[in-house]
Amino acid sequence: MTTNIKDYSTTQASNTSLNGLNVGEGMLPSNLNNALRALMKNTRDWFNDSQWVEYGDGDGSATYAYASGTSFTIAGADVTSQYHVGRRIKITAPTPGTIYGTIASSSFSTDTTVNVTWDSGSLSSEALTNVYIGALSKTNNSIPTLLIADGNIATAANIDATKIGTGVVNNTEFNYLNGVTSAIQTQLDAKSATITGAATTIVSSDLTADKVLKSDSSGKVAVSGTSVTELGYLSGVSSAIQTQIDGKQNIVANLTDIASLANTNGNFIVGDGSNFVAESGATARTSLGLDSMAIQAASGVAITGGTITGLGSPSAGSDAATKTYVDNLVTGLKTRIICRSATTANISLATDLQNGDTLDGVTLATDDKVLVKNQTTNTENGIYVVVASGAASRDPDFDTVAELAGQLTIIKEGTTNADSMWICTTDSGTIGSATITFSQVFPSSGGTVTSVAVADAGSSEFTVTGSPITGSGTINLAVNSIAVAKVTGAASAGFSIAMSVAL
After folding, report:
1. How is the chain split into domains, by residue range?
2. DSSP codes, 101-157
3. Does this model's pTM top 0.70?
4. If residue 358 lies in a helix (H) or strand (E), which one and from where to where?
5. Using DSSP, how many helices (H) and how many strands (E) does the chain show?
6. Which of 437, 438, 408 is nearest to 336 (CA)?
7. Are residues 148 and 141 in contact, defined by beta-carbon separation less than 8 angstroms?
8. pLDDT along the chain (503 residues), means of 10
């Protein structure tokens, strides 16, 4: 849709649309006045900024394309004569916005490629909104050629003074202006016309090379005996030199010994009775009496907040043992673990083992150990630690099946479980999948024998065999009553009895 003068075609017949209005053959008569108004608007819009021209390819159908940060192309047209070196250019695009520059070069091969030296900014890889060139060019016939012509512009970077006015100022004189930063006369007026006073001796006499200047008895500038090099030694001095020297320590022979030692990595400085010497760590330990702890003070050597590292495995009864050695030594050993209480039924691990909860009549406190043995999901059984809030977790000392297997646990408190003992009978598997069970252990001084096989061994003795007694032998029984049933048949020659016995 033609909306701007730049969009008008140089082919008259191709101009069939104007600001959305059909102005081709057979146009509506009502479009005529609107088209004239649109043409007037477009003309005025161009006039308002007539110093810039959207030339495009000269036919109103230019296609611009990004090439690099400093170049773009115009598709299918040779417009190098319009986009020539030195011509000003303005481009608008979404990312850089509006940027200005000067054409550095242009060339044509299928497309016209234009290289630009930007005043600031650069192009981005994006569509170009508008491309303008300055209305003035070196081939613009509106510029009076008699006043400015190629022959009257010097090829050098600076303007040729002979081409300005009458040429009274030559090029050499004109170049004296290079570097001037303010009014020349003002600067000249601020300068002294001649040297007067004490400095006059500098004018009348040559100075000795590489010497410092001073004032003589007449107040005139003279040469001192101090050289520039010697004066340079004062550089960096921050206070009275003598005061600093007086504050230094006199030379000590022993310090000289230390200064001459090589700073070899790992060496210690020790005294050998006459001088300071540098010794290796092993040699220094002997020299300092540190090769054996036995020679230290009777109170020993205190190690506070640190560790002793690098110990080997002990071989004698008096040798120190490493943590690894001790850990390996106790691997597989079981100890009795005291839990404060134990479950009697399934509980919620997420909510029932918090500080203040009640378990088997015991009010729990944070960090209490608890035996969980009655879970509906028996993989959850184990030894847990009470938390302040939230879900309880397994005791870190018993969070694997290997640590639980064969572990004997004693329950301290509880309405049901106080003073009871339980052993984990799960021997293998993985936490989360292994069925974990605990069985109560009864002391050898008590229990109930509910079913045994008894054989007559005499008038006062019985031979007892069967579960839970796994062996056989002769035992003496003190009972209140025994109910005996004769076993008939060939299967047994003894008696089968049911009895309750206090052992």
Report:
1. 5-48, 336-441, 452-498
2. EEEEEEEEESEEEEEEEESS----SS---EEEEES--TT-TTS-TTTS-GGGS-SSS
3. no
4. strand 358-359
5. 10, 28
6. 408
7. no
8. 65 75 80 78 71 80 89 92 92 92 94 95 90 78 50 53 64 84 90 78 77 84 86 90 87 71 78 78 75 60 73 82 76 74 95 95 96 95 95 92 91 95 93 94 59 51 47 45 44 41 41
